[in-house]
Specification:
By secondary structure, the protein is mostly helical. It is built from 5 helices and no strands.
Length: 151
């Protein structure tokens, strides 16, 4: 692998776009919990992105991706701890699944990077595709949660 390559972490930043979630009268605690998860993940991604170098090594990629994975898994835990109103439960399950899929995509990229015969460009492309798919699922679930909360 070439040491003169763009870091995988740079493509991960911004790939996940959790939208805000507004709450209704009986759903404010739930909306606050979803917002906490969203803000925590966005802040972690912004922090990691600000530290990304224009080139990287496999070890640096692994460290950065591990941090992204931890941030996504923390968001999943926060979302799992949320107690969605009945009308938002199905959308909430899809939201948790979308964030979990994102974390799993990053974990898969980390595993692939450990293979010395792997192609970093192929790994990047695969991660980008999976992150975009997860982001679309998350955005759709958040929109459904918002509709359910507006009621």
């Amino acid at each position: 692998m070439s040491a003169d390559r763009r870091p995988l972490a740079a493509l991960v930043a911004g790939a996940l776009a959790l939208s805000g979630c507004g709450g209704g009268d009986g759903a404010q605690a739930y909306a606050d919990r979803v917002e906490e998860a969203r803000v925590g993940l966005r802040e972690a991604i912004a922090n990691l992105q600000s530290r990304a170098a224009p080139t990287s090594t496999p070890a640096a990629d692994d460290r950065a991706l591990a941090a992204y994975e931890r941030a996504a898994r923390r968001a999943v835990e926060r979302l799992r701890d949320a107690d969605p109103p009945r009308a938002a439960q199905e959308a909430h399950r899809r939201l948790v699944a979308g964030v979990r899929d994102y974390a799993e995509a990053v974990a898969a990229a980390r595993r692939a990077l450990r293979d010395e015969l792997s192609d970093p460009l192929e790994i990047r492309n695969r991660l980008r595709e999976r992150a975009v798919t997860a982001s679309r699922r998350i955005d759709a679930a958040v929109a459904d949660v918002n509709r359910a909360l507006e009621g």
